[in-house]
Amino acid sequence: MPPGIQTLADGLAADAALSPADTGFMLLCSALVMVMTPGLAFFYGGMVRVKSVLNMLMMSFVSLGIVTVLWVLYGFGLAFGTDRGGLIGWRGDFAGLGGIGLTELWGTSTIPVYVFAVFQLMFAVLTPALISGALADRVKFTAWALFTALWVTVVYFPVAHWVWGEGGWLFRLGVIDFAGGTAVHINAGAAALGVLLVVGRRIGFRKDPMRPHNLPLVMLGAGLLWFGWFGFNSGSWLGNGDGVGAVAFVNTQVAAAAAMLGWLAYEKLRHGAFTTLGAASGAVAGLVAITPACGAVSPLGALAVGVIAGILCALAVGLKYKLGYDDSLDVIGVHLVGGIAGSLLVGLFATGGVQSPARGLFYGGGLGQFGKQTLGVAAVLLYSFVVSHLLAKGVDRLMGFRVAEDEEITGVDRTAHAETAYDFTGAGGGAVHRVPAVALGTPGALGGGPAPTNEAERGLGPDTERVDA
């Protein structure tokens, strides 16, 4: 992303003048990236049990409020202000987004600083929301809100500067991260692992069924993520003048499609079925992996990145059962592993003919770029893991990160939000069923356990009234 600030009063060349077309395009891309956070909420919300749907939605949605306020107050300045030693930025006139003129352009781009700021804001909003999927069913909403505010301040804003800020040490080193493989996905995945070690496993993990309660909701969320990802990736070039954004758009589609097919093929061979959850997860894995690479590889390279990421992530999601960590919705298996894969594959598949002249191993560039990518991956992973773990410990000591056992069993929707996602009374519907309480507690009730096999198990036995409207 082009760094720095210039103004129209500086006597810039004609090709650096403010472009209404590029400005409109980037505002549209910003809106697309914003839609990804509600899309993520649906994607995650469909994968949890029915008793924590609203909490899962809220853990994503609240990021729109918390991060937006912090970004305006100081986040933009820390991430994209004047470099301070390669580790952080700052500009006083960015605080409160004050002191920015209407005609000020971002770097050598043709868009105003305000447009760049709001585009990057949507990245900052999405990243902590990604972490929430690893913590489903069991954390205090107030603790999560506090952790989000601390995490974006101490982890996301500095890492964004490392990767994209002018003078950031990874930026200067030449690490390629077109749209957030390190700053977003590895950052969030490593943080999820660090927090998990503090929060612990859900009650009943590896014993009770914890299947998705609403797969259509998962597919809707995946579709919204896929749609928004075009703005996420192609918008990261900040304009349309040279065709790089168009290549990123094409590569985004190709990698997502290839990863979905790769995941489904693995799933069929391993488990004997093509599942909707596998299709949705595979597409997201491909989108994650192509994020750092979409401006460096060809469409054939994007196909390879997608297939590799789809299979690797499908393999990785099973590690939690072998290693014993409870990553509820596979944030580590998809975002951490997918982000690592995509970032490293830049070092193999970069053509040198799209965003930069840097070439990967398979295009005659040797292992130089692969080494840079490896360093970038390791630095972000270690920093995010360690600092996130320490932040989670601090929040846990201050107020307790996890809900009480009885609240977790009851469900965090009721205890934290005093609401439920679905009305099971049948009010307003064509039929009302009064189901014995014992039936609701049996396996298979409300999205948990094996599917009921007969009317008695569904609560429609002799002791149940059925009232037809």
Helix count equals 16
Report Rg.
Answer: 23 Å
Average residue pLDDT:
89
What is the helical fraction, as a range of percent? 55-70%
Sheet-strand content, in percent, reads under 5%
Tell me the span between the first and last alpha carbons. 61 Å
Q: Main β-sheet: number of strands, strand sense, barrel status?
A: 2 strands, antiparallel
- Envelope shape: globular
SS-based class: mainly alpha
Low-confidence stretches: 2-14, 428-469
SSE pattern, N- to C-terminal:
EHHEEEHHHHHHHHHHHHHEHE
Number of strands: 6
Biggest sheet: strand arrangement: 1-4
In short:
The chain has 469 residues and is mainly α. The chain contains 16 helices and six strands. Helix content is 59%, strand content 4%.
Secondary structure elements and their pairing?
Blueprint: E1 5-7, H1 20-47, H2 53-80, E2 82-84, E3 88-90, E4 104-106, H3 113-131, H4 141-164, H5 169-173, H6 181-199, H7 215-234, H8 244-271, H9 276-290, H10 299-316, H11 319-323, H12 331-349, H13 368-399, H14 405-410, H15 412-417, E5 431-434, H16 437-440, E6 465-468
Helix pairs in contact: 1-2, 1-3, 1-7, 2-3, 2-4, 3-4, 3-6, 4-6, 4-13, 6-12, 6-13, 7-8, 7-9, 8-9, 8-10, 9-10, 9-12, 10-12, 12-13
Overview of the structural elements:
This protein is mainly α and 469 residues long. It has helices at 20-47, 53-80, 113-131, 141-164, 169-173, 181-199, 215-234, 244-271, 276-290, 299-316, 319-323, 331-349, 368-399, 405-410, 412-417, 437-440; strands at residues 5-7, 82-84, 88-90, 104-106, 431-434, 465-468. A two-stranded antiparallel ribbon has the order 1-4. It has a two-stranded antiparallel sheet with strand order 2-3. It is built from 16 helices and six strands. The N and C termini lie far apart (61 Å).
